[in-house]
Amino acid sequence: MRRNLTYCIYHASKASKVFPVSALSRYRSVNDISKRHKFSLVLPHKTTPVKGIPDHIQKPPYAFTGVVGPKPLDIDIKTEEQIAVMRDTCRLARKILDSAGRHLKVGVTTDEIDEFVHQMCIDNGAYPSPLMYNHFPKSICTSVNNVACHGIPDLRPLEDGDIINVDITHKKTHMTTGLFMILLLQSAEKCWKTIYKNGVHGDVSKTYLIGAVDEKGRQLVEVTEKCLYAGIAQCRPGQKFLAIGTAIRDLAKANGFSVIPAFCGHGIGHEFHTPPDIVHIPLDGCESQHVTMKEGMTFTIEPILSEGTDMIAILEDDGWTALSEDGSRSAQFEHTVLITSGGCEILTISEEELKRERKKKDA
């Protein structure tokens, strides 16, 4: 089992395999699936060299070693001051995601998106944290079509009909001399221990349509976003975490899609990845899923839905890219949420979504 799956409390050995690039020729029914739904199968492509970071940018320890520290053991309850900082951080994370999304179009390579975000980090005095995170070679992860998550940006141009997930995580640190920002863009598995005092993270993800996506692909993306909000609707004090996975699984199943269980959401705040593990399927026999939510908890919900199997495989050659075992497409959406006295607050909501919510309340 790859190290980037080990934190998930689901029996990931059942849901994942590791195989070399040479084994991709044995992808079951890949050609039939891609032809039937009019999308291109994404396979490993050429990449560019690792980009450097200027000396004046403060770097996390793993930037030098590639080694990430252990995650905390307890669920953190945020203070009002911490919550205020998280709101600010999450708004910035959403702003960066929306900015990156505007650059996605047919003909653009994922490497160009990586370059754009990398430079945006430097311009803001920030470190792109995926870079050297467990030796990851790029500043972002880009997951296209049959790549469930952890796709490495490369020189493959985006094609008409592609779907692509971009995941933004941002960390802002308070210092006596002002604000220092660290930008993190990663996929589902995040587990690093920050050394920056009073720093907090915000995490948000979205799947984008490139050009004319077929009906099945559009439905997959639409239902995945609905599943995210179905999970969020369960969030309130006293509710079990089990309810999130149940709501997501039920809605996905009702629409003919499967939930990929090998990747889950997580607690977030001063540390990047903390308890609780937010599993996107119901695991009634797991004790941690019967823990109840409390006011002041912050965590991510980030389901990945597949139009085919829920089984994934990690490419042995890069140790990161998670592919659907049968070549089918997947989509993912994510928000960082805060448990409040009256329910929950979406900290990474976009301005557009916020306006829609206000109109609903005024109606």
Brief synopsis:
Helix content is 26%, strand content 21%.
Report the order of strands and helices: HEHHHHEEEEEHHEEEEEEEEEEH
Unreliable parts: 1-15, 170-198
What is the count of DSSP helices, taking H or I runs of 4+ residues?
8
Strand portion:
15-25%
Strand order of the largest sheet: 1-12-13-3
In total, the number of strands is 16
Shape: globular
End-to-end Cα distance: 51 Å
Secondary-structure-based class equals: alpha+beta
Percent range of helical residues: 25-40%
- Kindly report the average pLDDT value: 81
Q: What is the radius of gyration computed over CA atoms, rounded to a whole number of angstroms?
A: 19 Å
Q: Main beta sheet, described?
A: 4 strands, mixed
Assembly annotation? single chain
Give a structural overview.
The chain is of the alpha+beta class and 363 residues long. 26% of the residues lie in helices and 21% in strands. It has helices spanning 12-15, 30-37, 62-65, 80-101, 110-123, 215-232, 242-254, 351-362; strands at 16-19, 142-144, 147-149, 163-175, 178-184, 200-209, 258-259, 265-267, 274-278, 298-301, 304-306, 312-315, 322-324, 330-332, 335-340, 343-346. The chain has a four-stranded mixed β-sheet with strand order 1-12-13-3. Strands 2, 4, 5 and 6 form a four-stranded antiparallel β-sheet that branches. The longest helix is centred in the N-terminal third of the chain and has 22 residues, at 80-101. The chain is globular. The protein starts with 11 loop residues before the first helix and ends with a helix. Residues 1-15 and 170-198 have low confidence and may be disordered.
